[in-house]
């Protein structure tokens, strides 16, 4: 890029190109060589690589990269609902819409641009959207790649309506793992969860870590603000930190479900796990003029790390 870290220009670290459907993609890089790619279709992060060039997000080899379908992989944005309810499409419409680059983003806090590249995106409802979900909103999404290589997503949803509205939300994050049977998730122990495989019945997590031997589709409630996903085989741990996102969705479709999904390979469940920062059990309600913020930060660190270190790393 020709920029040293000392005079790193976060705007110059962003490149825009078009994919084969003519949709704009934004490529972010940091001085160390990490990168993130965001599609304006859905405001979806579709790639996140560390400074070694290793892909950290999972995308199905059978993913359909063609609007209006959301792509299977990366980080789809589920808004204004997660799951199926009412007349809205599954997981809401935000992941199927064309977003715009925001020309008037909120200012960066002091020191927040050091070694960081970022893009600000904006979604407003179309006339068509208002027929299905009659609420006027502005959704601002900032995707940042930190100097450390961490991926940071900040969503701001503002009600510019004459009446209150409610929504649920998730960053539906597909993490790339070497072998799901070697993965454990720490930070969910003793939490209550809703089990989507049992009509959202409520259970309490009994294990000291979550491991995978079959299909899992759960919403963990009132979760801590840091969760660790340990990939033993790759000796890598993903640390997920969140604010404004009380719930964590954990999903792996396993063998039978994988075979029923047209945009997902039969064996690909072994290479992925979804761990989503979310707001599901108690939806957000915004009065006119109110704004909600949900922040997610994902880091990938060597696996000597475990959840006991979560509070004192300062990551």
Automatic annotation (TrEMBL):
Record-linked Pfam families: Aldose_epim (PF01263)
InterPro entries: Aldose_1/G6P_1-epimerase, G6P_1-epimerase, Gal_mutarotase_sf_dom, GH-type_carb-bd
GO biological process assignments: carbohydrate metabolic process
GO terms of molecular function: carbohydrate binding; glucose-6-phosphate 1-epimerase activity
Entry keywords, A to Z: Isomerase
Reactions catalysed, as given in the entry: alpha-D-glucose 6-phosphate = beta-D-glucose 6-phosphate
Binding site for substrate: 72, 90, 95
Tagged with keyword Isomerase: yes
GO CC entries: cytoplasm
E.C. number: 5.1.3.15
Protein family per UniProt: Belongs to the glucose-6-phosphate 1-epimerase family.
Name of this chain's protein: glucose-6-phosphate 1-epimerase
Species assigned in the record: Punica granatum (Pomegranate)
Upper lineage: Eukaryota, Viridiplantae, Streptophyta, Embryophyta, Tracheophyta
């Amino acid at each position: 890029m020709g920029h040293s870290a000392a005079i790193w220009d976060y705007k110059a670290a962003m490149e825009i190109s078009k994919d084969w459907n003519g949709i704009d993609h934004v490529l972010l890089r940091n001085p160390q060589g990490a990168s993130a790619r965001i599609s304006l279709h859905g405001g979806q992060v579709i790639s996140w690589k560390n400074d070694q060039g290793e892909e950290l997000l999972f995308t199905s080899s059978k993913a359909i990269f063609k609007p209006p379908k959301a792509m299977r992989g990366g980080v789809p944005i589920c808004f204004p609902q997660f799951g199926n309810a009412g007349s809205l499409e599954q997981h809401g419409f935000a992941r199927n819409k064309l977003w715009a680059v925001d020309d008037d983003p909120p200012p960066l806090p002091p020191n927040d641009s050091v070694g960081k590249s970022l893009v600000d995106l904006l979604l407003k409802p179309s006339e068509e959207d208002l027929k299905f979900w009659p609420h006027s909103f502005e959704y601002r999404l900032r995707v940042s790649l930190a100097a450390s290589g961490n991926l940071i997503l900040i969503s701001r949803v503002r009600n510019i309506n004459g009446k209150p509205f409610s929504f649920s939300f998730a960053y539906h994050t597909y993490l790339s793992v070497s072998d799901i049977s070697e993965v454990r998730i720490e930070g969910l122990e003793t939490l209550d969860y809703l089990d989507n495989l049992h009509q959202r019945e409520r259970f309490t997590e009994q294990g000291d870590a979550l491991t995978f031997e079959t299909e899992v589709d759960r919403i963990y409630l009132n979760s801590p603000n840091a969760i660790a996903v340990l990939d033993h085989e790759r000796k890598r741990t993903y640390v997920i930190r969140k604010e404004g996102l009380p719930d964590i969705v954990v999903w792996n479709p396993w063998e039978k479900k994988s075979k029923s999904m047209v945009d997902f390979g039969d064996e690909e469940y072994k290479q992925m796990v979804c761990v989503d920062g979310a707001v599901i059990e108690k939806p957000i309600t915004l009065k006119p003029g109110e704004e909600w913020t949900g922040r997610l930060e994902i880091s990938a660190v060597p696996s000597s790390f475990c959840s006991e270190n979560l509070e004192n790393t300062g990551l």
